């Protein structure tokens, strides 16, 4: 019975005392606990219940698929509308130049960035569960798309006269083909995300750990920056893709740097300085400014006007955006023939895009006190990409910078995103042609300034060095693999390495011997805490890992190393002991036959380091320090027979307790290993018991047929203290003082 007593004085220590028998699993399972009776449902019945339709279930499905129905009918106009309008306009103004700029990363004409900033955002309003993320173009995803487009439709395929030497490329045909490839890729990404959402694979993003994602996005920022330098300098070079593409791109830039267009460079640098200054102002005075200063749209409008007035494309050779068709293009069925070549890239883009979106969505949901559904987010992104691809868009996800603007300017619901998309629609339908004189170096400046936030992630390196070396290794591998091998292969390598670190943690756990804190039932590492005292004759071993095929042998090795007991070595020592005993008996007989003088063999056992022997001559020598039945006996005379050696304990340790509290799971190999350990230590008269097993682990052990002779449930104890008390009673030897 448990008694809880507390002094009325506030300074008194709260105490609890429990008085009960020592339990083992055999008693608990047969006497203390009784399982509830449950009738298992048949497979057919479970399927029937799952497919059964009711009004409540239909309503739940519809509301889950269209989250807008849950909040739009109760939308508070007076409280939310003004904030959503301001937020939508601010986000839309930011989305316009980013859509134009990120289209260049995707290797398609800029107008397709505007299409991608309208259709998917409109659809997300109906299917998304996050109230604050801004769906649309994003630098990392756009760069991954551009890599696929360049690979499937390189310049060499569209060289006039069929040779590369002429350096004349049919840009119109090339861009048309790249658009087809990108649209097909977007369709495939949408299908993958939608199917994964239906299959409830929303947990997939957990395999992209935060260090992996941050290292990957930092590497993507390097790729993006390198790809934009040529637009900033006005240099014409080929676009490279695949492993070492960064190196090849830099090499091509340095080879052609003499052809830099000075006017283009000046425009780009001025825009970068202005944008950095505006961003700094927005960050410093974000609490005082009602809305952020729209530096990007200011730069676009001013540079477009100056370029148009000075006819820069003709007078100074400045490259401009070019033709932007007015209005929306009619829907078109994607080219399904390229799907087989695109599937690996589509899967990678689908996972990365979802990971970025769900991480942002969860951040804002936690901040504002609502929940997001990962599976519905997958479905929403899949529908946005799939349905929009018929209208010539490329893959979209959440943008960090725009989401921050949408949230900080007072956005409350998806209405803000809807208004932003309508602003983009207005530009596409009515005034898209106005941006035709816009210099591409301005778009490059916008992209590079927006990457500053990603480069700040380099500060993770010293922080992770101080906190977690393994997570630092994941960050570094993700970064360098993605920079050198490309984003696609780099992501695969990074995910593989992250999984290997999990295996490494199980291969190199912390192993410890536990000791009791006097007057308590608490046990801690004896190497770390002065108060922890080992129990006499008992070793308590703890390994902070689960036990399965990959680490079971390591577990046994650590057990033997920590306890200092190796049954095979001790048995070998016993054989050596017996050998010397036989020889000494023969010598004694010969000596006794010839002389009254006697000689005696003294065998010393080092129980911690192994077995050694020493022969000492002299009359009436006695055998000292030989362990018999757990007791240290002295004054054994030479009259002992050879059989007495088999009654001598090879070690003063009579019980080893395996603390299974940290063990989450065990497989068949692990169970067989523990069973063999119990049998092996029994050969040297050391009993091995288990303590702290969870009910789930016990159920697994029963399933694995662990409990059969000589292993029984009586060897399993609910706590370490139960095991210690049992070991004390079963072996009448001194144990820790004050064991209660």
Automatic annotation (TrEMBL):
Residue ranges occupied by any STAS domain in the UniProt entry: 528-727
UniProt KW Chloroplast keyword: no
Transmembrane segments: 100-127, 133-150, 181-208, 257-277, 289-311, 346-366, 378-398, 418-451, 472-504
InterPro entries to which the protein is assigned, alphabetical: S04_transporter_CS, SLC26A/SulP_dom, SLC26A/SulP_fam, STAS_dom, STAS_dom_sf
Subcellular localization(s) per the UniProt record: Membrane
Principal place of residence: membrane
Membrane-topology annotation of the record: Multi-pass membrane protein
Keywords (A to Z) from UniProt: Membrane, Transmembrane, Transmembrane helix
Source superkingdom: Eukaryota
Molecular function, one GO term: secondary active sulfate transmembrane transporter activity
PROSITE patterns on file: SLC26A (PS01130), STAS (PS50801)
A Gene Ontology term for the protein's cellular component: membrane
NCBIfam families: sulP (TIGR00815)
Name of this protein: STAS domain-containing protein
Organism: Onychostoma macrolepis
Taxonomic classification: Eukaryota, Metazoa, Chordata, Craniata, Vertebrata
